[in-house]
Amino acid sequence: MSAGAEVVVVEGVRRSFGALVPVLQDVSFRLEPGELVLLRGPSGAGKSTVLNLVAGLDRPDGGEVLVDGVRVAGLGHPARFRREVVGFVFQLHHLLAELTAEENVEVPLIPAHLRRSQRRARARAALAEVGLGDRATHRPVELSGGERQLTAVARAIVGRPRLLLADEPTGSLDAIAGERVLGLIGRLSRDQGMTVLLVSHDPRAAGRVDRVLELRDGRIVAPEPR
Fold first, then answer.
1. Which stretches make up the ABC transporter domain (predicted)?
2. pTM
3. Which domains does the chain have, with CATH numbers?
4. How confident is the model at residue 225 (pLDDT cuts 50, 70, 90)?
5. 184: closest CA among 143, 139, 224, 125?
6. What span, in angstroms and rounded, lies between the C-alpha atoms of 11 and 26?
């Protein structure tokens, strides 16, 4: 993978779950380096499936997903791709219950062979960016639902990925925390050139992105240039 933000090309992608459950029928779009794009649509439209395919967490039944010219489904080491290129904010935070917020955020940095002090400093900085600098030593059970989601956002950005995939990152947040996260994602795209694909029902999100894609009935039906 080259340095800098990533080009993402999704071309004619199909994905079904069982013979009678087609989710994506012919999805095609392109993200330019450093572009911030909102993918929206009704519940069950397949938005999370698109993110999983781009991240290499799932494989399409047909079509291709290319990131920086590399076919994601054909990667020999998809875990390395996700570690070095992709940051993923899951709709459910998936924090490790036995670890503190700081330790959860450190997890993506462990394979980088950084010193413990370096990982800790980066994790604390990421937590501060999302407004949780004073909650670093708390375990998930001691955090509110919104704080757990903010911790997941910090974990996704701690390695400064070139491609950020965010699945409803403000879904469990109050208005103030939601504004903080949307503002942070916007700054990462604008100031650091990070390519971002954002899935969100948050009405504020559309006003903060470069472009909106609408997913309905398994297809992109209405690209909306801003």
1. 8-225
2. 0.88
3. 32-56+77-225 (3.40.50.300)
4. very low
5. 125
6. 8
